[in-house]
Model the fold of this input.
Amino acid sequence: MPSYSDLEENGPFLPASYTPLRGPTPPESGHIQAISRRPIKVFGVIAASCLFLASLVLLIIYGQPPQSPAETAHSRSPLSPGNVRPASMEEAQGVSQKSFRRSSDGNETYPWTNAMLAWQRTAYHFQPVKNWMNDPDGPLHHLGWYHLFYQYNPDSAVWGNITWGHAVSRDLIHWLYLPLAMVPDSWFDWNGVWTGSATILPNGQIVIIYTGDTDNYVQVQNLAYPANLSDPLLLEWVKYAGNPVLTPPEWIALKDFRDPTTAWIGPDGLWRVTVGSKINKTGISLVYKTSNFTDYELVDHVLHAVPGTGMWECVDFFPISTTGPNGLDTSANGPGIKHVLKASLDDNKHDYYAIGTYDGVKDIWTPDDPKLDVGIGLRVDYGKYYASKTFYDQDKGRRVLWGWIGETDTDDDDELKGWASVQTIPRVVTFDNKTGTNILQWPVEEVKSLRSNNTEFDDVFLEPGSVVDLNISSAAQLDISAEFEVDTTQLNATLDEIKNCSVAALRGAAGPFGLLVLTDESLSELTPVYFYIGKATDGTLNHWFCTDKSRSTEANDVDKQVYGGLVPVLDGENFTMRVLVDHSIVEAFGQGGRTCITSRIYPTRAIFRAAKLFLFNNATDLNVTASVKIWHLNSADIHPFPL
Ligand code: DQQ
Done:
């Protein structure tokens, strides 16, 4: 087990001691709600008396008063006079949110029309009405409603002023936007109410632990809870008056301590929470024990550490059943259970996971295969996807995964269209007991409720070099299920040795073949989602699952990567993919969700009625037979509450 002194061998710890301005003495176990109400009232009085002064300050700084009734209700009450929010804060705050920047090659901004930009908005994915969104936070199910919180900037389409947006749904598809749940209004989250997770205690109490970026840019963990548990919509949230409940250990840098997980109970009856961090270049997951969520003890070793992976953001840690498809409560452990550890790597903005064993007595997690450890092995999704988080849906007995789909255009374009980012369709996560080496991700079954007119194609023969128009018009909201049977006798020694997805235009002996989504009639814009069969360097067969954005748009100021990863295809299996198309979002699930790729694309021609769907086989030496089921998907009902 790696101790902190082992980790220190990589170099000296960063000097970091932080003495926060402490709140009242933490309450006894089980008294969170009652004890903290009075300080909240006091806080309210202070806030109210500061309001006039704050309004004056805001008026002077921004030249205008708070704008809407909703914003007035959540107007900021600066407890630390003199705090003035800088214009761009990502660097100062130790996070970087927009990974795509326009290169310095002098590309002109593309002349987007309003129609093009309006078309990009999704129809059945969750996104706010306007402005910036990033990580999903604290998902949970309570009294018949699914709750989704999310990192949100109420002021603009770029990251900043991070608050918790809040929406609820009966079915994870149709959503009601609720008022902001938590805003940065206290010294312990003055620079942002950052990512956190919810835990439902056995007595029904809900606690949220979230990262606050303090008034002096220190990352701390704070406690919040619903003001009224009997409210199914959980409209009011109370920040514990004794916040922060956790400050960075003195050997952790002040900006490397964030994103607490859902808590789980260990064999000693104490709750555990893990928080992501790093020591030099080693990504780590700290573990804290608590009985009451206000007082914590740092375990003297990490849950896990992987050298070279850098800062671990948004760690997620959950049990998974190896014997059945049912999801497990986060505290479950024992025979037939493995544990998944996921980290979002700040250095490359990708989510990685590994499957392993959790020893609840020692509080360490060990990967099944050290070569596929967290951050160096499997990715949750090989596309534009980050900061994912699961929750146990106790209503349907399943583990559900949310993920943030960021933009791959420029900040200027985001401001032009007035919004940035989308959440994935929630996915059910199970263990793949056919391979034994990976998880499976699959869109929640509720997506099927959006399906309308179904079109099916059976046994479409795709000779090498063919492109087949499936004559689906208005192909912007689709659920596609495709199966490809290949002539295995052709998979012989002439196969290419491939190390990545290449681009779909380059022909190999046994690939690429698959679908062309969001394609215009003339094939000037198209997004291939495909398989590519090749040889690994050791001569064995390998299979790639890919999405190629290089020809998705004629716009020049957006990212045009080819995404993809290896996908296990077992003996006797055909190649299968499910693809959800929702305007500018393409979510692709290879081999039942063994490998997933999410893309944000920006077509200019393949939009509205011009968006079409094709099959293709660009292999030179492989015959492929395709069968495809296609459903148009209706739009989800996503609107503010009350109606
Ligand atoms: N986003 C949050 C942080 C987290 C990062 C800030 C990941 O808590 O580390 O908006 O995208």
In short: The first helix runs from residue 4 to 8. The first strand starts at residue 131 and ends at 142.
